[in-house]
Design a protein that fits this description.
The chain is mainly alpha-helical and about 120 residues long. The chain has one domain: Hyaluronidase domain-like (Orthogonal Bundle). It contains six helices and no strands. The chain starts with a helix and ends with a helix.
């Protein structure tokens, strides 16, 4: 039980940093912060592993747009799909809900998401 509580605390810390980085439009760095804790969560079969993965991919989808590379819109749509697939796991019953919810709101209300969702 102690291991899960420690991981929950580390997830909270990573989510706070993720939120700060997203607000500064440092999407790649935001993805990196969560990816570190995601690896541990996956190994321990933590219940929020997939939600973390969705947030990681949400941030990366914005990085594709930010870099304006060839096929960036297509890549963004693919990675945003992972976020959309798992965001429903963010519900008031999970540990760190407030932080997960804030992170999801940042992605859902970001102008890049409108670009990604726009039909070609």
């Amino acid at each position: 039980m102690w291991e899960k509580e420690l991981l929950d605390r580390d997830i909270a810390k990573a989510l706070r940093e993720f939120i700060e980085l997203m607000e500064r439009e440092e999407y790649f760095e935001a993805h990196e912060v969560l990816e570190l804790v995601w690896h541990r969560a996956r190994k321990q079969r933590h219940p929020q592993t997939l939600l973390l993965k969705g947030l990681i991919n949400g941030a990366i989808s914005f990085e594709h747009i930010k870099r304006k590379r060839a096929n960036s819109l297509k890549s963004s749509r693919i990675t945003m799909g992972s976020y959309l697939r798992y965001k429903s796991m963010c519900n008031p019953l999970i540990v760190n809900f407030e932080l997960f919810n804030e992170a999801c709101d940042l992605i859902d209300n970001h102008p890049y998401k409108k670009i990604i969702n726009k039909q070609v």
